[in-house]
């Protein structure tokens, strides 16, 4: 009976080139060094949205159905503003889920109002006063920002 010999070695054709691994490591270390330098020297952020005066704002209470993506929006006084199906309310429901996650992390009430603001420079933001979380809505695309713009226009009598 013959013995079966097995070779234990890596197939050189299947290995990642050593130069590529070193390049990726250098890139990661450079990113870490730049971030550390900015943090240690208290360098101010430079890619932040421009500050502008508030043109219009509304205090809203969001509700959503996580399963379907439908959303209901109320004014903080309890007046129904919009009852949106999953097609129209999908992004609003997604933002509501993020707000809920932040509220759970901060251990605050889940049902408080959020502040929707339009600025004179054309930007919009949504802020959760309970947690300090906010998002510049322009970063999510024109269609998604327009969903909130329509809500704000309704609170202002159609003018924003």
Explain this structure.
This protein has helices at residues 18-40, 86-106, 142-155; strands at residues 54-64, 71-75, 80-84, 114-119, 124-127, 134-136. Helix content is 36%, strand content 21%. Strand 4 and strand 5 (124-127) form a beta hairpin. Strands 3-2-1-4-5-6 form a six-stranded antiparallel β-sheet. It has 160 residues and is of the alpha+beta class.
Number of strands: 6
Instruction: Compute the separation of the termini in Å.
Output: 88 Å
Helix content: 25-40%
% residues in beta strands: 15-25%
What Rg, in angstroms, do the CA atoms define?
25 Å
Major sheet strand order: 3-2-1-4-5-6
From the helix content, strand content and strand pairing, which structural class follows? alpha+beta
Quick check: average pLDDT? 85
Based on Cα principal axes, name the global outline: elongated
Low-confidence region ranges: none
Give a quick account of the main beta sheet: strands, pairing sense, barrel closure.
6 strands, antiparallel
Q: H/E element string? A: HEEEHEEEH
- Total helix count? 3
């Amino acid at each position: 009976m013959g013995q079966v010999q097995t070779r234990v070695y890596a197939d050189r054709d299947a290995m990642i080139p050593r130069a590529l691994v070193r390049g990726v490591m250098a890139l990661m270390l450079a990113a870490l060094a730049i971030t550390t330098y900015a943090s240690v020297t208290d360098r101010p952020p430079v890619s932040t949205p421009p500050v502008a005066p508030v043109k219009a704002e509304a205090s809203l209470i969001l509700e959503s159905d996580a399963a379907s993506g439908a959303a209901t929006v109320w004014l903080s006084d309890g007046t129904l503003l919009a009852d949106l199906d999953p097609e129209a309310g999908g992004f609003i429901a997604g933002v509501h889920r993020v707000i809920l996650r932040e509220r759970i992390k901060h251990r605050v009430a889940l049902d408080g109002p959020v502040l929707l603001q339009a600025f004179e420079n054309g930007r919009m933001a949504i802020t959760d006063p309970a947690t300090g979380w906010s998002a510049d809505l322009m970063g999510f695309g024109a269609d998604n920002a327009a969903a909130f713009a329509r809500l704000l226009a309704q609170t202002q009598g159609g003018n924003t």
